[in-house]
């Protein structure tokens, strides 16, 4: 590192870090300086096993050769092209390839730059669609408690994480929430999908009866709620949501920002659960986290509903300067190649049992009150320290980092979602390290 960049790195004040305890971090910084495959390297030269695929995004692992090469080549060839009234070939190639991956009829793709933007885009498309089919009274959006849909005003409005909402005013009006599906009394230590709780979908009926279906445009849920601490849907729950939405003319949106691109052992949760929504939001694994990009999938019916009126007119007044950015498209295409060549979109299915057994072997560790898993996702819930919620899990995070393991915590829950290239030996290493962390912390 040069002297000037070293000096700049020593000034930690200016960067207001996102979703971070800034003061704690700046007293004892944790810096990554490079990454390769399953590992990060820290500024002090230590290897850290990536138990979280960055932030649930580096599904192909880090600095994969094909992706690196594609991005390097792209920036020298076409650095930027406007996506409004102009195009570039890779945007169309990528959209067609993605549409072919999604179950029919989800065969049109709108590009964004993040999960939050994908969510806002899907909500806006849902509202505009209802209006376009003469259902303009359908303006209400329904989310779920403990849902995470990013940090835009649309996303926090339908989202259900209290701390992400309570300081930001009134948000969108006309939003209601179903209850969450977490039911530790009946489902603690379930392996895979919990047996109990399909009936929580009936909450939607209550909400529909309260507001009348003619006022409701869409329901949005994460098929597996990730950021809120990994809440696996009870058996039958998503099917029932689909049924109710279809019966009442309500669009169903799956937020697959985390579950998309192989996390559960199938390309999308939509395949895994065999439930087809009307819109799907994605981001993260689309480019394996290399370049920011999101994609919203919608049905051909939704797309073609907008394709009316004079042909010179814009059909949807929505889009981003960086929608379908050439670098992001190049990264996504190379990521999809890597997924295909290495069978990564179904690899989690092969590893799921091994992962589940390793994870649940931690049941006897101190303070563990629940363990949950599906595909290559895992969560360990700890008893909070009395009067100091989140502190125990945060201590685990800090200790794990010192011990060479990256985990994520939310509340007093440890969430795990390694890159899909993880080996069985690395799964053993991950749970071995975690066991010693859980045994070491108070
Ligand atoms: C389900 C879900 N939706 C939306 C988002 C927001 O994505 P981003 O941080 O890219 O805006 C996330 C991020 O974790 C997510 O898990």
TrEMBL record:
This is Omega-amino acid--pyruvate aminotransferase. It comes from Roseibium aggregatum. Its cofactor is pyridoxal 5'-phosphate. Belongs to the class-III pyridoxal-phosphate-dependent aminotransferase family. Its EC number is 2.6.1.18. One of its GO terms (molecular function) is beta-alanine:pyruvate transaminase activity. Keywords: Aminotransferase, Pyridoxal phosphate, Pyruvate, Transferase. GO terms for biological process: biotin biosynthetic process. It is an enzyme of class 2 (transferase). It holds the Pfam family Aminotran_3. The keyword RNA-binding does not apply.
């Amino acid at each position: 590192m040069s002297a000037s960049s070293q000096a700049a790195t020593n000034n930690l004040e200016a960067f207001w870090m996102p979703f971070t305890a800034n003061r704690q971090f700046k007293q004892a910084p944790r810096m990554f300086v490079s990454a390769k495959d399953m590992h990060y390297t820290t500024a002090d030269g230590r290897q850290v096993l990536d138990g979280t695929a960055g932030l649930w995004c580096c599904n192909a692992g880090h600095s994969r050769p094909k992706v690196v090469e594609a991005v390097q080549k792209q920036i020298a060839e076409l650095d930027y092209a406007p996506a409004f009234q102009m195009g570039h070939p890779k945007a169309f190639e990528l959209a067609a390839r993605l549409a072919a991956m999604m179950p029919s009829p989800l065969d049109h793709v709108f590009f964004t730059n993040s999960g939050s933007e994908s969510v806002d885009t899907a909500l806006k498309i849902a509202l505009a669609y209802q209006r376009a089919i003469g259902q303009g009274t359908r303006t209400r959006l329904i989310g779920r408690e403990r849902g995470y849909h990013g940090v835009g005003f649309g996303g926090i409005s339908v989202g259900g994480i209290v701390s992400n909402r309570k300081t930001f005013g009134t948000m969108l009006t006309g939003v209601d929430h179903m209850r969450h599906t977490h039911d530790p009394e009946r489902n603690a230590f379930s392996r895979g999908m919990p047996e109990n709780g399909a009936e929580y979908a009936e909450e939607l009926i209550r909400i529909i009866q309260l507001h009348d279906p003619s006022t409701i445009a869409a329901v949005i849920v994460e098929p597996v709620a990730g950021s809120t601490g990994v809440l696996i849907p009870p058996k039958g729950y998503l099917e029932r949501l689909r049924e109710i939405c279809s019966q009442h003319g309500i669009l169903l949106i799956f937020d697959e920002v985390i579950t998309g691109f192989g996390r559960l052992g199938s390309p999308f949760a939509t395949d895994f659960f065999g439930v087809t929504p009307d819109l799907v939001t994605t981001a993260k694994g689309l480019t394996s986290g290399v370049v920011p990009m999101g994609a919203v999938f919608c049905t051909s019916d939704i797309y073609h509903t907008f394709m009316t009126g004079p042909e010179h007119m814009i059909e949807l007044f929505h889009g981003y300067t960086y929608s379908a950015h050439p670098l992001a498209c190049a990264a996504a295409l190379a990521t999809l190649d890597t997924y295909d060549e290495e069978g990564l979109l179904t690899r989690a299915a092969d590893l799921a049992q091994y992962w589940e057994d390793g994870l649940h072997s931690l049941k006897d560790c101190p303070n563990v009150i629940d363990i949950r898993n599906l595909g290559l996702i895992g969560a360990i819930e700890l008893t909070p320290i009395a009067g100091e919620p989140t502190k125990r899990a945060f201590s685990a995070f800090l200790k794990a980092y010192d011990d060479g393991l990256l985990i994520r915590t939310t509340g007093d829950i440890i969430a795990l979602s390694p890159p899909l290239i993880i080996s069985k030996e690395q799964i053993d290493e991950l749970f071995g390290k975690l066991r010693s962390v859980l045994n070491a912390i108070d």
